[in-house]
Amino acid sequence: MVKLSYRNPVVKRMVSSLTKIWIFYIVLSILAIYATAYALQKYTWLVARNVEILKVQSSIYNHETLRLKEDITNTMQTLQGVQDKSNYIVNIKESIKGVLEMIPDSITIQSITIDYSSLTLKGIVPSKQSFELTIQQRLDSIFENSHVEFYPLSNGWFSFVSINSSVLPFIAKKVN
Questions:
Q1: Membrane-spanning regions, if any (predicted)?
Q2: Looking at residue 173, what is its pLDDT?
């Protein structure tokens, strides 16, 4: 065999090894970009889903807050009503006590009936004027409706029945 070259023959490839390295890194970079884009897309989807969940929770909490505020308002109104009724009852109690304390010795009380919103007095009085001047004025100032009837007795005195009622009850009903 004849040798025409001073070098040994070398196999020549179509793509050099340096080009193969460049192609490998380019493909690797493209895959990394797609993987990052996919991860960001998934992360964005998860964040959007969490935002929707948080909006629903916020709506629920806002609704619950409004309901609790209404409950607080209703409770405060009920409490105010109970306080007003309590003050009214104390005032009625003091007024009735005052009426009973100012009954003169000449008037005889036979019975006192106190109902939920009414007071009934029965007794004997020497004259209509003595009852009206001593007790009736005080009863008129306490109750919305006050009515008295006199019945003459054989000795010249009068038997009376005084019925007094109020719109608001001043004695609480017993609940069984």
A1: 21-40
A2: 52
State the CATH number of the domain containing residue 128: 3.30.1360
Please classify residue 136 by burial: count the beta carbons closer than 10 Å to its beta carbon, then call 0-12 exposed, 13-18 middle and 19+ buried: buried
Strands 118-125 and 145-152: unpaired
Report whether pLDDT(172) > 60: no
5: left (phi over 0), alpha (psi -120 to 50) or beta: beta
89 and 109 in a single domain? The answer is: no
pLDDT digits (tens, 9 = 90+) for 127-153: 999 888 888 888 888 888 899 999 999
26 and 68 share one domain: yes
| Better-scored residue on pLDDT, 77 or 5 | 77
Residue ending a domain, among 101, 131, 154, is 101
Domain boundary among 101, 130, 155: 101
How far apart CA 142 and CA 136 sit, in angstroms, is: 10
Half-sphere exposure of 3 toward its Cβ, with a 13 Å CA cutoff? Answer: 5
pLDDT tens digit sequence for 50-63: 999 999 999 999 99
